[in-house]
Amino acid sequence: MSVHPNPGPAAGPLLKVEALRLKFGTREVLKGVDLTVRKGEVVVLIGASGSGKTSLLRCVNLLNLPSHGKITIGGEAIYSANPAARDGNGVPLATVNRIRAQTGMVFQQFNLFPHMTALENVMEGPVTVKKANRDATRREALDLLAQMGLADHVGKYPRQLSGGQQQRVAIARAMAMHPQVMLFDEPTSALDPELVGEVMKAMLDLARSGMTMLIVTHELGFAFEIADRVIFLDEGQIVEDGPPRDVLLRPTHPRLKSFVGRFHETADLLRPFLEGS
Amino acid sequence: MFHFDVITQNWPLFWAGLQVTLFYSAISISAGLVIGLVVGLIQLTGSRTLTIIGRVYVEIFRNIPLLVILLWIYYAFPIFAGLSITKFWAGFAGLSLYAGAFYAEILRAGVQSIDRGQTDASTALGMTYGQRMRRVILPQAFRRMIPPLAGQSIIQIKNTTLMSMITVPDLLYQASYVSSFTYRPMEVYTMVGAMFLVLLVPLTLLSRRLEKVSERVK
Q1: CA A237 to CA A22: how far, in whole Å?
Q2: CA nearest B127 in A: which residue?
Q3: On the CB side of B99, how many CA atoms lie within 13 Å of its CA?
Q4: Contact A128 B121 (CB under 8 A)
Q5: All domains of chain A in start order, with CATH
Q6: pLDDT of B146-161, one tens digit each?
Q7: How many residue pairs from chains A and B have C-beta atoms closer than 8 A?
Q8: Which of A51, A68, A16, A65 lies closest to A186 in space, CA to CA?
Q9: Which CATH architecture has domain B5-217?
Q10: Is ipTM strictly over 0.90?
Q11: Residue in B with minimal Cα distance to A126
Q12: Which of A61, A186, B52, B53 has its CB surrounded by the most CB atoms within 10 Å?
Protein backbone atom coordinates (compact mmCIF):
# COMPACT_ATOMS: atom_id res chain seq x y z
CA MET A 1 0.00 0.00 0.00
CA SER A 2 2.97 2.26 0.50
CA VAL A 3 3.30 4.98 -2.08
CA HIS A 4 7.04 4.33 -2.05
CA PRO A 5 7.68 1.14 -3.83
CA ASN A 6 11.21 1.11 -2.59
CA PRO A 7 12.51 3.40 0.15
CA GLY A 8 15.37 0.89 0.51
CA PRO A 9 16.38 -0.33 3.93
CA ALA A 10 19.99 0.42 3.02
CA ALA A 11 19.35 4.17 2.84
CA GLY A 12 20.94 5.92 5.80
CA PRO A 13 18.98 7.96 8.30
CA LEU A 14 18.23 11.45 7.04
CA LEU A 15 16.67 12.64 10.26
CA LYS A 16 17.68 11.34 13.64
CA VAL A 17 16.11 12.36 16.93
CA GLU A 18 17.69 11.02 20.12
CA ALA A 19 16.37 11.14 23.68
CA LEU A 20 14.43 14.29 22.93
CA ARG A 21 12.79 16.04 25.84
CA LEU A 22 10.74 19.23 25.80
CA LYS A 23 9.43 21.17 28.76
CA PHE A 24 6.90 24.00 28.78
CA GLY A 25 7.41 25.45 32.23
CA THR A 26 7.12 22.50 34.57
CA ARG A 27 5.09 20.37 32.19
CA GLU A 28 7.14 17.86 30.22
CA VAL A 29 5.56 17.52 26.79
CA LEU A 30 8.12 15.15 25.27
CA LYS A 31 9.64 12.56 27.56
CA GLY A 32 12.54 11.06 25.67
CA VAL A 33 11.66 10.47 22.03
CA ASP A 34 13.90 8.48 19.67
CA LEU A 35 13.06 8.61 16.00
CA THR A 36 14.90 7.82 12.81
CA VAL A 37 13.60 8.72 9.37
CA ARG A 38 15.31 7.40 6.23
CA LYS A 39 15.59 9.35 3.01
CA GLY A 40 12.37 9.11 1.02
CA GLU A 41 10.40 7.71 3.91
CA VAL A 42 6.95 9.03 4.81
CA VAL A 43 6.26 8.89 8.53
CA VAL A 44 2.89 9.81 10.02
CA LEU A 45 2.59 10.83 13.66
CA ILE A 46 -0.73 10.16 15.33
CA GLY A 47 -1.95 10.58 18.86
CA ALA A 48 -4.54 12.35 20.97
CA SER A 49 -4.31 16.13 21.35
CA GLY A 50 -1.67 16.93 23.93
CA SER A 51 0.28 13.78 23.16
CA GLY A 52 3.20 15.87 21.89
CA LYS A 53 3.07 15.16 18.17
CA THR A 54 2.96 18.80 17.07
CA SER A 55 5.67 19.65 19.63
CA LEU A 56 7.86 16.88 18.23
CA LEU A 57 7.41 18.25 14.72
CA ARG A 58 8.21 21.79 15.87
CA CYS A 59 11.35 20.53 17.61
CA VAL A 60 12.69 19.10 14.36
CA ASN A 61 13.16 22.62 12.93
CA LEU A 62 13.69 24.15 16.37
CA LEU A 63 10.53 26.27 16.41
CA ASN A 64 10.38 24.70 19.85
CA LEU A 65 13.72 24.42 21.60
CA PRO A 66 14.15 21.02 23.24
CA SER A 67 15.30 20.88 26.84
CA HIS A 68 17.37 17.78 26.25
CA GLY A 69 18.46 15.48 23.44
CA LYS A 70 19.99 15.57 19.99
CA ILE A 71 18.62 16.18 16.51
CA THR A 72 20.59 15.40 13.36
CA ILE A 73 19.59 16.18 9.79
CA GLY A 74 21.69 14.75 6.98
CA GLY A 75 24.44 13.87 9.46
CA GLU A 76 24.72 17.43 10.79
CA ALA A 77 23.65 18.06 14.36
CA ILE A 78 21.18 20.95 14.50
CA TYR A 79 20.60 20.59 18.19
CA SER A 80 22.66 19.00 20.87
CA ALA A 81 21.97 19.83 24.47
CA ASN A 82 25.16 21.23 25.84
CA PRO A 83 25.19 23.66 28.74
CA ALA A 84 28.32 25.39 27.41
CA ALA A 85 26.75 26.10 24.06
CA ARG A 86 26.94 29.56 22.60
CA ASP A 87 23.25 30.10 21.96
CA GLY A 88 22.06 27.68 24.60
CA ASN A 89 21.09 25.16 21.93
CA GLY A 90 24.44 23.59 21.30
CA VAL A 91 24.68 24.99 17.78
CA PRO A 92 25.47 28.53 16.58
CA LEU A 93 22.39 30.46 15.51
CA ALA A 94 23.66 30.92 11.95
CA THR A 95 23.90 27.15 11.58
CA VAL A 96 20.43 26.76 13.04
CA ASN A 97 18.97 29.11 10.44
CA ARG A 98 20.87 27.44 7.61
CA ILE A 99 19.77 23.96 8.56
CA ARG A 100 16.31 25.09 9.48
CA ALA A 101 15.97 26.11 5.87
CA GLN A 102 16.58 22.48 4.92
CA THR A 103 13.33 21.47 6.53
CA GLY A 104 10.11 22.66 4.93
CA MET A 105 7.20 23.26 7.26
CA VAL A 106 3.51 23.34 6.41
CA PHE A 107 1.21 24.67 9.12
CA GLN A 108 -2.35 23.94 10.08
CA GLN A 109 -3.32 27.60 9.57
CA PHE A 110 -1.25 27.92 6.33
CA ASN A 111 0.46 31.08 7.66
CA LEU A 112 0.96 32.55 4.21
CA PHE A 113 2.28 36.09 4.13
CA PRO A 114 -0.92 38.11 3.51
CA HIS A 115 0.86 41.12 1.98
CA MET A 116 2.44 39.04 -0.77
CA THR A 117 0.93 37.30 -3.79
CA ALA A 118 1.07 33.52 -4.11
CA LEU A 119 4.14 33.87 -6.32
CA GLU A 120 5.87 36.27 -3.92
CA ASN A 121 5.14 33.93 -1.02
CA VAL A 122 6.91 31.11 -2.83
CA MET A 123 9.84 33.30 -3.89
CA GLU A 124 10.36 34.87 -0.47
CA GLY A 125 12.44 32.09 1.12
CA PRO A 126 14.98 31.57 -1.68
CA VAL A 127 15.37 35.29 -2.43
CA THR A 128 15.61 36.56 1.15
CA VAL A 129 17.28 33.66 2.93
CA LYS A 130 19.38 32.04 0.21
CA LYS A 131 19.94 35.27 -1.77
CA ALA A 132 19.00 33.27 -4.84
CA ASN A 133 18.75 34.81 -8.28
CA ARG A 134 15.37 36.50 -8.68
CA ASP A 135 14.61 35.40 -12.25
CA ALA A 136 15.62 31.81 -11.70
CA THR A 137 13.61 31.73 -8.49
CA ARG A 138 10.59 33.16 -10.24
CA ARG A 139 10.73 30.48 -12.93
CA GLU A 140 11.03 27.77 -10.33
CA ALA A 141 8.26 29.22 -8.17
CA LEU A 142 5.91 29.37 -11.18
CA ASP A 143 6.80 25.76 -11.86
CA LEU A 144 6.08 24.69 -8.29
CA LEU A 145 2.76 26.53 -8.25
CA ALA A 146 1.83 24.87 -11.54
CA GLN A 147 2.63 21.48 -10.04
CA MET A 148 0.26 22.36 -7.20
CA GLY A 149 -2.44 23.14 -9.78
CA LEU A 150 -2.28 26.86 -9.11
CA ALA A 151 -0.98 28.17 -12.43
CA ASP A 152 -4.01 30.47 -12.73
CA HIS A 153 -3.65 31.92 -9.24
CA VAL A 154 0.00 33.00 -9.03
CA GLY A 155 -0.83 36.72 -8.89
CA LYS A 156 -3.52 36.42 -6.23
CA TYR A 157 -3.20 37.36 -2.58
CA PRO A 158 -3.91 34.75 0.10
CA ARG A 159 -7.26 36.33 0.99
CA GLN A 160 -8.40 35.78 -2.59
CA LEU A 161 -7.70 32.03 -2.37
CA SER A 162 -9.64 29.18 -0.79
CA GLY A 163 -8.17 27.36 2.19
CA GLY A 164 -7.14 24.42 0.01
CA GLN A 165 -5.44 26.74 -2.48
CA GLN A 166 -3.67 28.59 0.32
CA GLN A 167 -2.38 25.35 1.77
CA ARG A 168 -1.05 24.29 -1.63
CA VAL A 169 0.73 27.66 -1.95
CA ALA A 170 2.19 26.95 1.51
CA ILE A 171 3.47 23.57 0.31
CA ALA A 172 5.04 25.24 -2.74
CA ARG A 173 6.60 27.90 -0.50
CA ALA A 174 8.22 25.23 1.65
CA MET A 175 9.35 23.21 -1.40
CA ALA A 176 11.01 26.28 -2.94
CA MET A 177 13.74 26.01 -0.29
CA HIS A 178 14.67 22.53 -1.57
CA PRO A 179 14.17 20.98 1.84
CA GLN A 180 15.58 17.58 2.67
CA VAL A 181 12.54 16.79 4.74
CA MET A 182 9.03 18.21 4.69
CA LEU A 183 7.15 18.64 7.95
CA PHE A 184 3.34 18.84 7.94
CA ASP A 185 1.47 19.96 11.04
CA GLU A 186 -2.16 18.87 10.66
CA PRO A 187 -2.23 20.33 7.13
CA THR A 188 -5.91 19.56 6.52
CA SER A 189 -7.42 20.25 9.95
CA ALA A 190 -8.37 23.85 9.22
CA LEU A 191 -9.91 23.07 5.85
CA ASP A 192 -13.54 22.71 4.82
CA PRO A 193 -14.21 19.01 4.17
CA GLU A 194 -14.58 19.49 0.40
CA LEU A 195 -11.12 21.07 0.22
CA VAL A 196 -9.26 18.37 2.14
CA GLY A 197 -8.90 16.10 -0.90
CA GLU A 198 -6.94 18.55 -3.06
CA VAL A 199 -4.34 19.07 -0.35
CA MET A 200 -4.04 15.33 0.30
CA LYS A 201 -3.56 14.73 -3.41
CA ALA A 202 -0.78 17.30 -3.53
CA MET A 203 0.90 15.56 -0.60
CA LEU A 204 0.53 12.13 -2.20
CA ASP A 205 2.17 13.46 -5.37
CA LEU A 206 4.99 14.80 -3.25
CA ALA A 207 5.42 11.46 -1.48
CA ARG A 208 5.49 9.65 -4.82
CA SER A 209 8.22 11.99 -6.03
CA GLY A 210 10.43 10.60 -3.26
CA MET A 211 10.22 13.44 -0.74
CA THR A 212 10.98 12.57 2.86
CA MET A 213 7.98 13.57 4.93
CA LEU A 214 6.98 13.75 8.56
CA ILE A 215 3.25 14.32 8.91
CA VAL A 216 1.05 15.00 11.91
CA THR A 217 -2.57 14.24 11.04
CA HIS A 218 -5.86 13.11 12.46
CA GLU A 219 -6.95 11.66 9.12
CA LEU A 220 -6.25 7.99 9.72
CA GLY A 221 -7.47 6.95 6.26
CA PHE A 222 -4.98 9.36 4.74
CA ALA A 223 -2.27 8.10 7.09
CA PHE A 224 -2.97 4.58 5.92
CA GLU A 225 -2.63 5.62 2.30
CA ILE A 226 0.45 7.80 2.44
CA ALA A 227 2.59 6.40 5.26
CA ASP A 228 5.47 3.99 5.16
CA ARG A 229 5.40 4.08 8.93
CA VAL A 230 2.90 5.24 11.49
CA ILE A 231 4.03 6.33 14.93
CA PHE A 232 1.63 6.56 17.83
CA LEU A 233 2.57 9.07 20.50
CA ASP A 234 1.02 9.01 23.93
CA GLU A 235 1.88 11.43 26.73
CA GLY A 236 5.11 12.48 25.11
CA GLN A 237 6.41 9.03 24.30
CA ILE A 238 6.39 6.78 21.26
CA VAL A 239 4.35 3.74 22.18
CA GLU A 240 3.97 2.14 18.77
CA ASP A 241 5.97 2.45 15.56
CA GLY A 242 5.40 0.31 12.51
CA PRO A 243 3.82 -0.10 9.08
CA PRO A 244 0.35 1.48 8.85
CA ARG A 245 -1.25 -1.95 8.46
CA ASP A 246 0.04 -3.04 11.86
CA VAL A 247 -0.35 0.19 13.78
CA LEU A 248 -3.75 1.19 12.47
CA LEU A 249 -5.43 -2.16 11.93
CA ARG A 250 -3.79 -4.43 14.50
CA PRO A 251 -3.00 -2.15 17.41
CA THR A 252 -1.55 -3.95 20.42
CA HIS A 253 -1.03 -1.17 22.96
CA PRO A 254 -4.25 -0.51 24.94
CA ARG A 255 -3.98 3.27 24.52
CA LEU A 256 -3.58 2.90 20.77
CA LYS A 257 -6.50 0.45 20.65
CA SER A 258 -8.79 2.97 22.28
CA PHE A 259 -7.40 5.80 20.12
CA VAL A 260 -7.97 3.89 16.89
CA GLY A 261 -11.27 2.61 18.29
CA ARG A 262 -12.53 6.16 18.50
CA PHE A 263 -11.94 6.32 14.78
CA HIS A 264 -13.50 2.92 14.21
CA GLU A 265 -15.61 4.23 11.39
CA THR A 266 -12.45 5.07 9.52
CA ALA A 267 -10.98 1.74 10.51
CA ASP A 268 -14.04 -0.05 9.16
CA LEU A 269 -13.64 1.78 5.90
CA LEU A 270 -10.10 0.47 5.73
CA ARG A 271 -10.99 -3.15 6.38
CA PRO A 272 -11.57 -3.96 2.69
CA PHE A 273 -7.99 -2.88 1.98
CA LEU A 274 -6.72 -5.32 4.55
CA GLU A 275 -8.91 -8.19 3.43
CA GLY A 276 -8.33 -7.50 -0.25
CA SER A 277 -4.61 -7.93 0.03
CA MET B 1 -20.39 92.41 16.17
CA PHE B 2 -17.26 90.77 14.70
CA HIS B 3 -14.52 93.15 13.62
CA PHE B 4 -12.54 91.04 11.28
CA ASP B 5 -10.30 93.88 10.19
CA VAL B 6 -8.42 92.98 13.40
CA ILE B 7 -7.46 89.76 11.65
CA THR B 8 -6.69 91.21 8.26
CA GLN B 9 -4.61 94.04 9.68
CA ASN B 10 -2.53 91.62 11.72
CA TRP B 11 -2.49 88.81 9.18
CA PRO B 12 1.33 88.76 8.89
CA LEU B 13 1.49 87.78 12.57
CA PHE B 14 -1.08 84.99 12.13
CA TRP B 15 0.74 83.81 9.04
CA ALA B 16 4.09 83.73 10.84
CA GLY B 17 2.48 81.88 13.75
CA LEU B 18 0.90 79.31 11.44
CA GLN B 19 4.27 78.65 9.81
CA VAL B 20 5.88 78.08 13.21
CA THR B 21 3.06 75.71 14.17
CA LEU B 22 3.44 73.75 10.94
CA PHE B 23 7.23 73.69 11.25
CA TYR B 24 7.18 72.32 14.81
CA SER B 25 4.45 69.85 13.87
CA ALA B 26 6.54 68.51 11.01
CA ILE B 27 9.85 68.21 12.84
CA SER B 28 8.38 66.83 16.07
CA ILE B 29 6.27 64.24 14.21
CA SER B 30 9.33 63.15 12.20
CA ALA B 31 11.62 62.96 15.22
CA GLY B 32 8.83 61.33 17.27
CA LEU B 33 8.42 58.62 14.62
CA VAL B 34 12.14 57.86 14.70
CA ILE B 35 12.14 57.72 18.52
CA GLY B 36 8.97 55.62 18.48
CA LEU B 37 10.45 53.18 15.98
CA VAL B 38 13.60 52.70 18.05
CA VAL B 39 11.85 52.52 21.43
CA GLY B 40 9.08 50.29 20.06
CA LEU B 41 11.53 47.87 18.45
CA ILE B 42 13.94 47.59 21.39
CA GLN B 43 10.99 46.43 23.48
CA LEU B 44 10.42 43.60 20.99
CA THR B 45 13.94 42.20 20.90
CA GLY B 46 13.30 39.99 23.89
CA SER B 47 16.12 41.61 25.88
CA ARG B 48 14.95 42.32 29.42
CA THR B 49 17.16 45.35 29.93
CA LEU B 50 16.13 47.00 26.66
CA THR B 51 12.47 46.28 27.36
CA ILE B 52 12.69 47.92 30.78
CA ILE B 53 14.49 50.97 29.35
CA GLY B 54 11.77 51.29 26.73
CA ARG B 55 8.96 50.89 29.26
CA VAL B 56 10.42 53.48 31.64
CA TYR B 57 10.75 56.00 28.82
CA VAL B 58 7.22 55.37 27.55
CA GLU B 59 5.59 55.56 30.98
CA ILE B 60 7.44 58.75 31.94
CA PHE B 61 6.44 60.65 28.84
CA ARG B 62 2.94 59.22 28.59
CA ASN B 63 2.02 60.04 32.16
CA ILE B 64 3.44 63.53 32.61
CA PRO B 65 1.31 66.23 30.97
CA LEU B 66 2.99 67.72 27.92
CA LEU B 67 2.76 71.22 29.38
CA VAL B 68 4.68 70.08 32.45
CA ILE B 69 7.29 68.41 30.24
CA LEU B 70 7.77 71.58 28.21
CA LEU B 71 8.03 73.81 31.29
CA TRP B 72 10.41 71.37 32.94
CA ILE B 73 12.72 71.15 29.93
CA TYR B 74 12.75 74.91 29.41
CA TYR B 75 12.93 76.14 33.01
CA ALA B 76 14.07 73.25 35.23
CA PHE B 77 16.42 71.20 33.05
CA PRO B 78 18.90 74.10 32.47
CA ILE B 79 19.29 74.45 36.27
CA PHE B 80 19.92 70.69 36.68
CA ALA B 81 22.30 70.45 33.78
CA GLY B 82 23.90 73.84 34.29
CA LEU B 83 23.45 74.84 30.67
CA SER B 84 21.06 77.07 28.85
CA ILE B 85 18.58 75.79 26.31
CA THR B 86 16.87 77.78 23.59
CA LYS B 87 13.10 77.69 23.30
CA PHE B 88 13.51 76.06 19.90
CA TRP B 89 15.32 73.07 21.42
CA ALA B 90 13.05 72.94 24.46
CA GLY B 91 9.93 72.90 22.29
CA PHE B 92 11.38 70.48 19.78
CA ALA B 93 12.69 68.08 22.44
CA GLY B 94 9.53 68.17 24.57
CA LEU B 95 7.16 67.60 21.66
CA SER B 96 9.32 64.90 20.05
CA LEU B 97 9.92 62.93 23.25
CA TYR B 98 6.23 63.11 24.10
CA ALA B 99 5.18 61.99 20.61
CA GLY B 100 7.84 59.25 20.59
CA ALA B 101 6.31 57.60 23.66
CA PHE B 102 2.91 57.36 22.00
CA TYR B 103 4.31 56.26 18.64
CA ALA B 104 6.36 53.57 20.41
CA GLU B 105 3.21 52.17 21.96
CA ILE B 106 1.42 52.18 18.60
CA LEU B 107 4.35 50.36 17.00
CA ARG B 108 4.63 47.79 19.76
CA ALA B 109 0.88 47.08 19.69
CA GLY B 110 0.95 46.89 15.89
CA VAL B 111 3.78 44.35 15.82
CA GLN B 112 2.27 42.31 18.62
CA SER B 113 -1.07 42.18 16.81
CA ILE B 114 0.52 40.20 13.98
CA ASP B 115 -0.38 36.53 14.21
CA ARG B 116 2.23 34.29 15.85
CA GLY B 117 1.98 32.02 12.79
CA GLN B 118 3.72 34.69 10.71
CA THR B 119 6.78 34.47 12.95
CA ASP B 120 6.61 30.67 12.83
CA ALA B 121 6.38 30.59 9.05
CA SER B 122 9.20 33.06 8.46
CA THR B 123 11.40 31.38 11.07
CA ALA B 124 10.75 28.00 9.47
CA LEU B 125 12.03 29.42 6.15
CA GLY B 126 15.30 30.16 7.95
CA MET B 127 14.89 33.92 8.29
CA THR B 128 16.86 35.83 10.90
CA TYR B 129 15.20 38.23 13.35
CA GLY B 130 16.02 41.18 11.10
CA GLN B 131 14.71 39.50 7.95
CA ARG B 132 11.51 38.49 9.72
CA MET B 133 10.89 42.04 10.91
CA ARG B 134 11.80 43.71 7.62
CA ARG B 135 10.12 41.33 5.20
CA VAL B 136 7.16 39.89 7.08
CA ILE B 137 6.18 41.50 10.38
CA LEU B 138 6.72 45.26 9.88
CA PRO B 139 5.09 45.53 6.43
CA GLN B 140 1.93 44.00 7.90
CA ALA B 141 2.14 45.92 11.17
CA PHE B 142 2.63 49.28 9.41
CA ARG B 143 -0.63 48.85 7.54
CA ARG B 144 -2.46 48.31 10.80
CA MET B 145 -0.61 51.20 12.39
CA ILE B 146 -1.56 53.83 9.80
CA PRO B 147 -4.90 54.85 11.41
CA PRO B 148 -3.56 55.21 14.99
CA LEU B 149 -0.42 56.95 13.69
CA ALA B 150 -2.54 59.44 11.77
CA GLY B 151 -4.73 60.00 14.82
CA GLN B 152 -1.76 60.55 17.11
CA SER B 153 -0.19 62.95 14.61
CA ILE B 154 -3.35 65.05 14.55
CA ILE B 155 -3.22 65.24 18.35
CA GLN B 156 0.44 66.18 18.01
CA ILE B 157 -0.34 69.12 15.74
CA LYS B 158 -2.87 70.40 18.29
CA ASN B 159 -0.37 69.87 21.10
CA THR B 160 2.09 72.31 19.51
CA THR B 161 -0.09 75.15 20.89
CA LEU B 162 1.29 74.34 24.36
CA MET B 163 4.64 75.71 23.21
CA SER B 164 3.15 79.19 23.48
CA MET B 165 3.64 78.74 27.24
CA ILE B 166 7.40 78.68 26.75
CA THR B 167 7.11 81.69 24.42
CA VAL B 168 7.66 79.86 21.16
CA PRO B 169 5.92 82.19 18.66
CA ASP B 170 3.42 79.68 17.30
CA LEU B 171 -0.08 80.46 16.06
CA LEU B 172 -1.59 80.62 19.56
CA TYR B 173 1.26 82.77 20.89
CA GLN B 174 0.84 85.28 18.05
CA ALA B 175 -2.91 85.32 18.60
CA SER B 176 -2.46 86.09 22.31
CA TYR B 177 -0.10 88.86 21.32
CA VAL B 178 -2.57 90.33 18.80
CA SER B 179 -5.33 90.04 21.39
CA SER B 180 -3.23 91.84 23.97
CA PHE B 181 -2.99 95.06 22.02
CA THR B 182 -6.26 94.97 20.01
CA TYR B 183 -8.47 93.88 22.92
CA ARG B 184 -10.43 91.69 20.47
CA PRO B 185 -10.06 88.19 21.94
CA MET B 186 -13.34 87.05 20.38
CA GLU B 187 -12.22 87.58 16.77
CA VAL B 188 -8.66 86.51 17.44
CA TYR B 189 -9.33 83.20 19.18
CA THR B 190 -12.24 82.37 16.87
CA MET B 191 -9.76 82.76 14.03
CA VAL B 192 -7.25 80.43 15.71
CA GLY B 193 -9.97 77.79 16.16
CA ALA B 194 -11.07 78.20 12.54
CA MET B 195 -7.50 77.84 11.27
CA PHE B 196 -7.04 74.58 13.16
CA LEU B 197 -10.34 73.29 11.80
CA VAL B 198 -9.34 74.12 8.23
CA LEU B 199 -5.99 72.43 8.82
CA LEU B 200 -7.12 69.31 10.66
CA VAL B 201 -10.55 68.39 9.30
CA PRO B 202 -9.09 67.30 5.94
CA LEU B 203 -6.39 65.32 7.79
CA THR B 204 -9.04 63.63 9.96
CA LEU B 205 -11.03 62.69 6.87
CA LEU B 206 -7.87 61.37 5.24
CA SER B 207 -7.04 59.24 8.26
CA ARG B 208 -10.57 57.81 8.24
CA ARG B 209 -10.05 56.86 4.60
CA LEU B 210 -6.74 55.21 5.43
CA GLU B 211 -8.51 53.29 8.17
CA LYS B 212 -10.91 51.84 5.61
CA VAL B 213 -8.06 50.97 3.27
CA SER B 214 -6.09 49.26 6.03
CA GLU B 215 -9.17 47.25 6.98
CA ARG B 216 -9.42 46.07 3.42
CA VAL B 217 -5.83 44.83 3.26
CA LYS B 218 -6.26 42.85 6.47
Answers
A1: 11
A2: A129
A3: 32
A4: no
A5: 13-102+181-276 (3.40.50.300), 111-178 (no CATH)
A6: 889 999 999 999 999 9
A7: 61
A8: A51
A9: Orthogonal Bundle (1.10)
A10: no
A11: B125
A12: A61
